[in-house]
Each structure stands twice: as structure tokens, then as C-alpha cells.
Amino acid sequence: MSDPMDLLRSNLSRVRIPEPTNRIYKQECCLSFDTPRSEGGLFIDMNTFLAFGKDCVTWNFEKTGNKVYLHIKQTKKVVAEDRPLKKPTLLGIGIDGGFDNSELEYEETYTIVILPDHVTLPFPSVELPEKVRLAVDAILMAEGAERKEQVAAWIADKKQTSAYAMNLQQIDNGVIVPPSGWKCIKCDKTDNLWLNLTDGMILCGRKNWDGTGGNNHAIDHYNVTHYPLAVKLGTITADLEAADVFSYPEDESVLDPLLAQHLAHFGIDFSSLQKTEMTTAERELDQNTNFDWNRIQESGQDVEPICGPGYTGLVNLGNSCYLAATMQVVFSTHSFYSRYHTNQSLKVAFEMAPADPTVDLNMQLTKLAHGLLSGKYSIPDLEKDDNANATSTARAKQEGIPPRMFKAVIAASHPEFSTMRQQDALEFFLHFLDQVERANAGKPELDPAKSFKFGVEDRILCSSGKVTYNSRLDYILSLNIPLHEATNKQELEEFHKFKAEKISEGKEVSSDEIVRPRVPLEACLANFSAPEEIHDFYSTALKAKTTAIKTTGLTSFPDYLVLHMRKFVMEAGWVPKKLDVYIDVPDIIDISHIRSNGLQPGEELLPEGVPGDEVESNKPLPNEDIVSQLVSMGFNHHHCEKAAIRTSNAGVEEAMNWLLSHMEDPGIDVPISQEAQGADTLSSVDQSKVDTLISFGFQEEIARKALKASGGDIEKATDWIFSNPEGSVSSDMDATTSNTTPTPINAGLPDGGGRYRLIGIVSHIGTSTQCGHYVAHIFKDGRWVIFNDDKVGASVNPPKDMGYLYFFERLNS
Fold first, then answer.
1. Burial 585-599 (b: 16+ CB within 10 A, else e)
2. Which PROSITE patterns match (predicted)?
């Protein structure tokens, strides 16, 4: 047998000293969830700096030929049971002088391992070649790639210091701002007020799409003066970093390190101010969260911990519960279980992966499936009793696995999911399925995402008696909640009287006294398929706008049906508000009545429209009074005409605001007639409404589709966008395009009967999808199981009436 040192020297050419830009993995195996604390430790490839567990390192050697590895093993330190506890001298946990956080301490050992025979050499050792010593030192000193990504995500969430803060000029105009009683100097608004930090003017905020909010006086003031910073009154407290400071030129919330000094200039003593602008989330959470939290998480229940295959918890990476809850349900479906676990091993996925398996979605999905479903990591978190001879007892919380690499891959194409902020589980679910579909594009027969996909068909009946059909594909059935269909109306009326009495007495209603509406799921489904009027529908038969009737149905029934309950509606300030409502959901549902079968005998299709008919008949003209007033202010005549048209001739102020915010648009000088000629069939949508949706941050194409799909109604269009965040409509909702053969859209999709069984619930605690907490309940092995991040246990009382997403499995008839 060769001398180990000679063997190492013969492989020195494959050993690299890492550069500062190299990503070094040393906390977790790239193919499994093994760590240095696992029984076999962790092996770091000294050429690629990828990490592998004991079972996977040989696969890497066979694939790459890399023989030299740094082996890291962590073992628990033995702590003397009679060790005296140090008296804390500082108010803190886990810091020098603070309280002991009781975390276990680990001892780390290192060896150099040479494959394939696992020849080992000790480290540190002066006998090792210098290149190896330098490489190992660099690996050990470097911050792990896993940690770097986590830190980067946290930093991305932090407000940045404004470039205008340090040298902000403040006018000495004698303005002193009182501690209360504020009002916009240009209107009567007393809320949503902003203090300009240059001249001390108090002005109202932006106007919302529906006319609520402010009157744009603060932004108008900036457009005239270019004074850059303003702070929202009511958000200033002793914690100045929490104050809402906005930078107009930077167009974002920022930090002002000199805010105390800037406020003092106007006589404001920040230490005496109390926060008065309470957000909707804060106000409603204060009343309802305790109840929701206890009910959904089953707090106070004697939850029996469960371990084993399919019962592995997911570690919360920082507001990642939306991901954890969604993925637990997804991998409980047969389609994903078989695709990434039963029919594909870790080794096969690694052999197909690129050089860096950490960036391969197929590899990371297989890794996640193996981690969740194999049972290898479903280990209870053992807690030693004080008695050394007592047996260990398991808590409901298990260690779980951290889905770091999966999160990094799935978030690579979506910046919001890359952050540590809370996200909408629905939006994540749709993004996830879209990425899975793309990854399986070459082999659609293997695509597990299609088990959720189905066809949707809109039948539009024109007042001429003729019809048109529009089809699209979707992954979720989004349902409005008809509160007027509540089954406990009498109790609600009595509660509202009781609440009014309490308020008149100056008392608050306690959470256990609140009565919530109860709406049957059947009512939500009936509402989905109910006839709906479409106003201003352009009929190619009548060659004019009319009122049409739209009904919606499904052209195929998926293997797994996901129902999204629209519990979030828009309130003033463009803030999502959560409906406080129960949905009575049965274990078995039948949706056969909402199947759509396309063109029926005796129906006559609307004729194909002549291109430009509708556009020409509705060609907008600018209001000359608005144009002349804007021209008198010095604006370009063509720009003024465009501003008047884009704001639907609403008024001079609206047109001017549009002008000021679109002066730098690339197409500002394009003639209006040329724009009309170059527009596609979506151009018939009111451009001012498109601009309104664009101002909310939506893409123009999605805004146009949404307005088309909703008959030009902005509120319905926003609902459509929130229900279709991926812009999943595949065909234009153009009434001039009739679908005479709607069935091909279902080609390759699963289909069957309309009876479904409830198998999973994703519930949300909080008043906005951007805050709060998500929990999953899944029906497994004949019982309901709660998956609350890394806590997995038998559910005692699953919150079937409080779900945000409901997952149903089709029953085979």
C-alpha cells in the first residue's frame, strides 16, 4: 500500500487554495441534509469546495475524479453535571456575562481523506504539504456559502441610508410643528400626512387607485420644489429608525441618520411623541391574532409528536413558513412523491446535475424530497431529564431540516423570495409550479406540476344572442367569499348590537366574544360559476358596446384541486385587509356542476371582428380645454394631448401629474395615431386604467390582460392579478376571438370525475399575506397531522374552517 503522504502529494494538482470569490460549502451536504454533526461528518472537496455526506462523497469522486477531501466532524462536548451556573451580569442571552442559552457545545476535528480507499491524514500537521495546509486554513477561515446567502438576504431587507440625508438643507423659515392636530396645508386631510424635512410643510400622501388615501399634495410639492425627504407624521417615536422616512428622488423608504436633528429644526422633540399611525395589521392583530394563533397552531392541545418517513419538519430560515407549509403539502401528493423520491434517487439526480448541484432545481427538489420523505432526518429533539439515569423524552419539536439550498434555487428567478421577508404562500406555490414545469419542459410526461393544472373556460353571451368562448390554463381555483351567504346571520346581527353597546360604554370586545360569519364552501363555488354582467362589452355582431353575461367553468378536472380563498381585500391605502370569516369545508366535495363543455348545439358564435373596428369607434380625443391650460404652463402640445387622453380627460391636475411622472418615458414623443396603429388587440383597454395598474407595480401586459378579463373594471382587475400572479392566462380575453374547439387546451392534462377529498390545508395567521405565520395540516395515514415549521404532531382539532389554501385529491369513481 502506498504511503499516505506520497498518495497526497501525487494528487496535489487537484488541490486548490480558495480565492475570496469562491463559494465554500462546509455546513451541509449539497445532495443531502448531512452536516458535520451527522454520524459520518462532512467531506469538503478540496477542488470544488462542495460538501458531501458520507453516503454521497463516493458519488462525487466517481463523477469528478477528485480524490482529496477535508473531513469535518463535530461531536458534543461532555459538560460536567455539577458545573456551577455563572451569575449573569448583563441582561442578555448567549453573550459574555449574560444568561446561559443552554445550547450544546461541539468539538470540531479535522482530517484529510483521500478516496477511494478513505486514506486519512491528521490535520493540523506540519508534515502536510504547504499547499494543503494553506487550502485547509482558507476553507476553515472563510465564511460558508450557506451563511453568506443568509446574511445577504437579511441585508437586502434593510433600509439604506439616503444619499440626501447627511447634507440636507433646511430652510430657516420659523416653522414650528405642533405635537398633534396636524392637517394638510392644501386640503382638510388629517391622516396620511408627511412632513417635508426641508421647509416643514405638512402635506397629504398619494391618492390611491380608488380615490382614497391622500390628494398627492406631498408629491406635488416635491415636483415643484425638489425638496427630497419627508417623514410620515404619526410614525415618529423614540425609536427613530422605525420612523417612515421617504426619499422622493430615490423613490423608496430610507434611513435618515440625522432625523433627530432634522426634526429639532422644526421644534419636534421626538422623545415625547407616541406612535399614533397604527397600521391595519397592528390594529387587527391586537384583537384577533391570539385567537387565530392558538386555534391554527393548536396551542394548548396535547399534540402527540410524530416521527418517521413523511413526518420530517422544516427549519424556519427566517419568515420561511410560507415555503415550509406549501412544500409539506406538495410532497404529500403522489405526483411529487413519485417524481422526486420513488422514481429518482439522489445518485441519479446528482449524475444528471451540472458541475454545481446547488444551483440545479432537479437536484435540490430530489434532496428536499429525500429529506422530507426518507425518515432519515425525522429525529425527535431529545431532552435530558435532571436525573442522569432517566430515559430521554421527546418533545413535539424535532430538529427538522433547513431548506436553504432549495430556497436559494427556487428564489433565483424571483427577487422577493430571495429575501427574509414573509411572502404570500399562494404566490410562492404558483411560482414553484411554474419553475417545476420549466425544469421538466424537455420531458412533459414527467412533469408533476401538471397534476395541479386544469382548463378554465369563459362563456360570454352577447345581448345579440350570440356567444364566444375564451379558454385559459390555471393551477388554482380562486374563490371570492360571498359574506351575504353566511349561515349565522342572526348571531351576527346580535353580535353587532352587542359590539355597539360595548363601544358606547367605552369597552372593547374580547376575542372570545367575537362572532365571525360562517360561509359554506358550496356558496363560494356557486359564486364562481354564477352569471356575471360585463358592461361595455364590444360586440362584433352589433358593432357597438353592450352588456354581456359571462359564466365560467372548468374544461378539465385535475388530479389535485387547489382552492384559494380570497380572504384578502383592498382597503384604503392599498393595504390588503383580511376578511375575518370561517369557511365551512366538507371532507368530500363534488364540482361536477362547474364543468364547461364548450360550444353547444344551437349556439351561434360571434363573428370575427374586422381589425381596428372597435379601436376606431372608440378612438379617444383629448379635451381641448385641458390641453390649452397645460400648454399655457409651458408643456409640449403633443405631450399635453397624450396626457389628457391617458387620464381619460379627468382634469388638468390629473393630466399634469401624468405628465410629470412620464416625461422621461421612451415613447413620450411617439405620435398618438402611430400608437393606435401599432397596438395589438389589447389596445382597446382604457390606457389610463392600464397606467393606474402600472403605477401599482404591475407589468403593462399583465395589466392589460387583467382589464380585458374584468371588462375594464380596475377593482376586478386587481383581484384578477392577485389571483393570477404569474399572468397565467394563456389566451387574450378578446371577444372577437371565438374558440370553436376549446378542448385542445386540455391536451395532455389529467381529467376525471368531479368528486374530491380534502387532503391538505395551508392556514394563515395575521392580517396580511406579507406578515404573520403559515401552518399546514395534512391528512396522512388516516389522521390529520400538523406541520408547523419543525414541529410535527398528530392534530387534535384541525382548523378546517380557517384555511387560506385547500388541497383536494380527486377520487377515482
1. beeebebeebbbebb
2. UBA, USP_1, USP_2, USP_3, ZF_UBP
* pLDDT for position 149: 62
Which residues are annotated binding-site positions for Zn(2+)? 184, 187, 204, 217
User: CA torsion angle for 353, 356, 357, 359 (degrees, to 10)?
Assistant: -110
In this prediction the pTM is: 0.69
Q: How many Å apart are CA 309 and CA 76, to the nearest integer? A: 26
Distance, in Å, from the CA atom of 660 to the CA atom of 220, rounded to the nearest integer, reads 9
Which residues are known to be catalytic?
A: 321, 773
| Cell of residue 304, nine digits | 402527540
Q: What is the pLDDT of residue 84?
A: 53
Question: Cα 727 from chain centroid?
Answer: 15
Q: What letter does residue 317 receive in the DSSP assignment?
A: -
Separation between Cα atoms, residue 574 and residue 579, nearest integer Å? 15
Q: Does residue 249 have a cis bond before it (omega within 30 degrees)?
A: no
Give the tens place of pLDDT for each residue, 644-656. Answer: 887 777 777 778 8
pLDDT in tens, 105-128: 889 999 999 999 999 999 999 999
Render pLDDT for 241-296 as a digit per residue (tens, 0 to 9): 767 899 999 888 889 999 989 999 998 876 655 445 443 334 333 444 444 556 66
Residues 6+ apart with CB under 8 A from 397: 305, 313, 381, 790, 791
What does the DSSP 8-state code read for residue 341? Answer: I
Q: Can you tell me the distance from the alpha carbon of 233 to that of 197, in angstroms, rounded to the nearest whole number?
A: 11
Cα 624 to Cα 627, 658, 673, distances in angstroms: 5, 17, 17
From the list 374, 395, 404, the residue with the least C-alpha distance to 311 is: 374
Enumerate the β-bridge partners of residue 765. Answer: 773
CA terminus-to-terminus distance, the chain: 66
DSSP element (H, E) containing 80: none
Binding-site positions: 184, 187, 204, 217
718/570 Cα distance (integer angstroms): 9
* DSSP three-state, residue 589: strand
Report the 10 Å Cβ neighbour count for 565.
23
SS3 state of residue 617: helix
Statement: residue 2 has pLDDT above 80: no
User: Rounded to an integer, what is the distance from CA 375 to the centroid of its chain?
Assistant: 28
434 — phi, psi (to 5°)?
-65, -40
Nearest of 35, 31, 44 to residue 71 by alpha carbon: 44
| pLDDT, tens digit, 9 for 90 and up, residues 431-486 | 999 999 999 988 888 999 999 999 999 999 999 999 999 888 999 999 999 999 99
Strand runs labelled E in 555-659: 560-565, 568-571, 575-578, 582-584, 588-590
